[in-house]
Design goal:
- The protein is of the alpha+beta class.
- Helix content is 55%, strand content 12%.
- It has a four-stranded mixed beta sheet, covered by helices on one side.
- Helix 7 packs antiparallel against helix 8.
- The longest helix is centred in the first third of the chain and has 20 residues.
Length: 205
């Protein structure tokens, strides 16, 4: 394992610790990250409510549970996040639900602006987009896959809109939040179980 990954894992937090941090920031009228803007503070408050809701309502289908529990390799999912990120607020509760379903998956989180070297090693088309899931094989310390910053369907909608309009508008961003709410984590679950299938084909048999 390289030094940047090892240092980030050493300083990482559990999902429970991350949730406590986001809740405390929301209560303190603050936010994580370098930019303590009013907008980011408001997003942190909104995301705390979102995550609280998803923590209670995310459900895994019988098929998804069967797939996730078939996975036998010990891995760590190291997630780069920030409290103000709307995509993170929708995705990290699903990651936690999957990790809770299989003891072989160790979910850890770090904050993007506190780990610039790690973030710059896992850019998305040159951008520091989050959340970014770095999947690490525990036995070798090697990175075996990545995921993010959005689920596959949302990525398609975003790329199509950018191709047509050049940038994401506030209205589109609001529509994207509605998509997350309507999808209820299904696309994220499908994407991640497919990632596990790539590592262990028996998961999908």
């Amino acid at each position: 394992m390289n030094a940047v990954l090892a240092n980030s894992l050493e300083k990482s937090m559990s999902y429970a610790e991350y949730r406590e941090l986001v809740a405390q920031l929301a209560q303190d009228n603050s936010t994580s990250g370098d930019l303590k803007t009013e907008a980011n503070i408001n997003f942190t408050k909104l995301n705390n409510r979102r995550m609280k809701r998803w923590d209670k309502t995310i459900k895994l289908s019988k098929e998804a549970l069967k797939r996730i529990r078939t996975f036998k390799e010990k891995v760590t999912w190291l997630v780069i996040s920030e409290s103000w990120c709307g995509d993170s607020a929708h995705i990290t509760p699903v990651l936690n639900k999957l990790a809770e379903s299989n003891d072989n998956i160790n979910l850890r989180l770090v904050l993007r602006d506190e780990h610039p070297e790690l973030m710059d090693a896992f850019l998305t088309f040159g951008a520091r987009s989050i959340p970014k899931v770095i999947m690490i094989e525990d036995a070798s310390g090697e990175v075996i896959n990545t995921y993010g910053p959005r689920p596959s369907e949302a990525t398609y909608y975003v790329n199509r809109f950018k191709a047509m309009h050049g940038t994401l508008t506030p209205d589109f961003k609001e529509d994207l939040q509605h998509w997350y709410n309507d999808n209820k984590g299904k696309n994220i679950i499908d994407d991640l179980t497919e990632k596990l299938c790539e590592l262990t084909p028996s998961v999908c048999q």
